[in-house]
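hi support,

uploading two proteins for the ticket. first:
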Amino acid sequence: MSTRTELPPPAPLPVLPTGGDGPMGPHGSGCFGCGPEHPSGLHLAFVRTGDVIRATVHLGKRFQGAPGLAHGGIVSTILDDLSGAVPVALGQRAVTAKLEVDFTAPVLLGRDLVAEAWLETFEGRKIRIVSRLLDDGRVLAVGRALFLTVPREHFAGPAASASASSIAP
């Protein structure tokens, strides 16, 4: 567990021809975190404001871990999926190589939460991203992720085609 308390400021994100500030599309329609067609997904909707990407989420009882609290895996999923929007804002295809989550306070169910992510550094293939989950401005969890850029072919092939075309309920 990391003992760092101060988070680095956002590094600048470029304004691409495909978009700057405003809503961003999902990673894919069937993505558990942000896909609108995933029947049991989180349905996160990403919005870019300057160099920060945000999403709101309301976690109901189906995401419970300990009584009345969100499961840590769901909290990690939110931070990972939101972090994945940063490479998109950079115009890059990338995958999670490492995710470290510091759980700083209990995440109560039934609350409107805000998740934020921003670029820390982008060097070579390595994209370092910082994220956090907040409840009314209070930090509940902090994520530090390493994403690696990959070629388009990384997402091609039989396994990718099968998972994109059918979502199990």
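and the second one:
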Amino acid sequence: MSEPREVIAQAAGVNVRLANADDLGGIMTIERAVFEHEAWSAEAMRRDMLDANCYYLVGELVATGQIVGYAGLLCGAGSGEGDIQTIAVRPTVRSRGLGRVMMADLIAEAGRRGATRLFLEVRSDNPVAIGLYRALGFVEVGVREGYYQPDNVDAVVMKLEPVPGGPSSRKLGPIGSELTNPPAIGEWPKDGAC
């Protein structure tokens, strides 16, 4: 029996955790079923999953441990921006909130890595995904005509800025604001520290 893995989040009977190399088979089963002729190769997926600049998640059924979704982020620490590389959920478990939960964790990780901007591409004929990304704060910034081949479907480029939790979303009060509500006498530091 394998050791338990840390659960990052949950969505209606699905645990979300960090992906590891042992998950490649389950991920590729979904990749091929969802993306068909646009699917990444197993080698490309493995390379991305194991890259230190990437962060990959899987969703697995609580009852069986079967992988039913995955998502990946490319965001080097301190690079300032990131890219949602991929996200897919088995059709049989859609509408449970798994995609939203995985996206929220990818966004949070991008913020922890210092991203101020986060990008993604989505098929223009996928209104459900576009609606999810809009609900998470992404806005459309461009179109890549005929990006998805051989279907010749456009890619909608979307951006989230600022990234929640990222450096541009952290705000400090104005300098001197401590004087508008000064501490009572005796509350000032005695050692002269400010």
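thanks. also noticed: The two ends are 55 Å apart (CA to CA).
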